[in-house]
Every structure is written in structure tokens, then in C-alpha cells.
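Hey, sorry to bother you again with one of my protein questions. I've been staring at a protein lately and its backbone has me curious. I owe you a coffee for this, so here goes:
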Amino acid sequence: MPPSRVLDHPAAAPQQAADHLREKLAFYTDPSDLAHDLDERAPGIAVIDARSADAYRAAHIPGALNVPHRNMDAAGTAHLDRGLVYVVYCDGIGCNASTKGAYRLATLGFRVKELIGGLDWWQRDGYAVIAGDTAGGCGC
């Protein structure tokens, strides 16, 4: 029997795995969890689209604010509530505006998570997007 490529690197001990995965969940969320929270109007979170204003106008998650990552400085984020956790997204795979935006927000003292897969996975999972300049509500 050939050796296992999966086990070339042994699996972590259960507690090590739990600690690592808990840490990972502190940084990321997925479309399903975000849609649930938006639909239930869960307190404590807000969504930021870190793409350009043109991309936001073309399509965005209902309820998302547009704060392009390049504008995330003290002045560009002065209107944001520091008591919220911000879920930041961009187009998805191949786009790192959400990473840049979440990083900039974190360095400014905001609590952040990235949306796994961005707008692409949001739409693939069947959640609605809206167009225009306003955030709109979420009827996820």
C-alpha cells in the first residue's frame, strides 16, 4: 500500500486543532452566517464593501457600506461605529481588497472579519445583491 500524502504531515492533537480552528474563525465568516445575521438583524455587525465606488454601484450586498480600502484612514473611517464588528468583502478569489481593508481597519482599532469568497461566493450561494449608491436593507 502506498504511503498517505495526507499523513505525510501528522494531524494535530485534538486540542491543538480546536485552538487553531477557533483562531481561524476569529478572522473569517462565510456567506451563510453573514446572510443569517443580516436577515435576523443581529446586533453588533456591519458589512463593508472594500471595492471601488463603481464596483459597489454595479452590485453589492444589501446593507453594505462602501468604504474603498484606499480610503480607509482616520478621516475616511471617522463615521464608523467603533463598537461594531465589520465584515469586509471584495469580489472574491483573486481580489485582496477585503484583506487590505480589514488590515487597515484593524490598524485603526476596529474589530474585523473577512467574508470568505467575497461577493462571488455570496452570489454563488444564492444571496441577493443590489445595485446603486445606497446600502439598502437586507432581505437575505
Summary: Helices lie at 14-25, 31-39, 53-58, 97-107, 118-124. Residues 25 and 74 are 27 Å apart (CA to CA). DSSP finds five helices and five strands in the chain. Strands lie at 28-29, 45-49, 65-66, 85-89, 111-115.
